[in-house]
Design a protein that fits this description.
Blueprint (H helix, E strand, L loop, with lengths): L10 H9 L6 H12 L5 H15 L7 H11 L4 H11 L5 H16 L12 H7 L2 H55 L9
Helix pairs in contact: 2-5, 3-4, 3-5, 3-8, 4-5, 6-8
Organism: Rhizobium leguminosarum bv. trifolii (strain WSM2304)
InterPro entries: DUF2062
Protein name: DUF2062 domain-containing protein
Length: 196
Amino acid sequence: MLFRRRKPAGFKEKMRELLWPRKGFLRPLRYLTMRILRLSASPHAVAAGVAAGVFVSWTPFIGVHFVMAFVITYFLSGSMVAAALGCAAFGNPLTYPFIWGITWEIGHLLLSREDHLAGQAVDLAALFHRLNFTELWRPVLEPMLVGAIPPGIVTSVALYALTFYTVKGFQTRRHTRLLERARLRLASPAGDLPSV
């Protein structure tokens, strides 16, 4: 292997890196941010893709988040790469427990089911084992889907605006730098080209 360690990591070091990565927890977030900013699509396309990925991440249909995000992004004329990055950044194993708790509570509040389900226990293991969609819909999926709509709309609209203006500013600054570099290259004689 090309980038293998000379001395393999011991058990203690592996456990430490599992709990606290060497590069920190914010490095993946910075990487995703720079990856989104450097997409060559228009600011609207990037922002629409990110917003679609974030909106879909609120829904309880985990296995098809990327497909749903791609369909929404297609109709919004967005970037598919940005949609995938939005799904991966917002909907991940660290955020799903919070997302599910929020959507569950909002769904029960909107459907006003507090008194109907009081005292009833839902055996999720048996429902998932049988995989009977009709039995799973009413107690689990319906409140989570209904509860996903308000926070999904709020976060996707907010992240659309934030992503749009951030990408627009980044692309404008980058375009200005490239124009200045080209102007300097054209103004200097052939022998005085700056090294890059």
